[in-house]
Amino acid sequence: MVMNMYILFLVSLPEAFLNLIIALLITGRKDTLKINRNNIVRFTASLFLMLLSSCIIRPVSPNIIINVTLHIIAYSLIFMLVYRMKPVYALFGTAFFLMIITATEVIYTPYVITYVFNGLANFQEGYHWYVLLSLPQRSVQALMIVFLWKHEVLLVTRINCNFHRLFLASFLLLVFGEQLLYFIFISIFEKLQVVYQITFSASLFIIVLVLNFLIFKLIYTVIGGLVVKSYNKYSDFEDDVKFALGEIRDLLINNQVEEAVKLIDDLNG
Known about the structure:
Blueprint: H1 5-26, H2 37-60, H3 64-83, H4 87-116, H5 120-125, H6 130-133, H7 135-150, H8 153-157, H9 161-188, H10 194-253, H11 257-267
């Protein structure tokens, strides 16, 4: 992809800005988005490094698979360096916004390149259209930010360690599976009939949308069940404690000290 000042400031900068917010929200770093000097410095540094990596990677790596892989590595390292994220969280944050970009892009970008610009070469020369073409992606990014601001997904899963690990592993597997299908789709797109092109892109979008919906639903169902179960156990424990304290109180009022001590010993096991 061609890289110039127009693309840098009007396409890459807004994309990176929103992607960074998404990565911080999905990894439970909402506090780093509060307005203060330290947060602004870290956010600005991350944004600068993300844009710098894109400026280096995009022009020298025309192969989409290598391009995406290098971006994943670069962004993950940036999050680890600037925000001290664990590698799995840095990879998770990068993979998450990459999934959003890919799932949105697959719906219309290949058709625009093939049927509007008649090929990738013409598409790259018509870069002044990129701002308009990126608006659907920006809209989806903004909607995702609103969702993640209200629902702290990763923090919720930490209520249960096993579920937390399972969620991270399942989601990363889903994202890289989606990327594999996307790479296959891009490589064979022009060889397919239009009906199969539409079917493939719509199917991929629906699969990603449905699977993510089911994952998020599963999170709140499982965690909701754990919270309810824990609350019920706590309520039962509270009732037992109140009953035991009441019995001890009655024994002490009646000067049955030995019986009260015996009951305490029984409660202690």
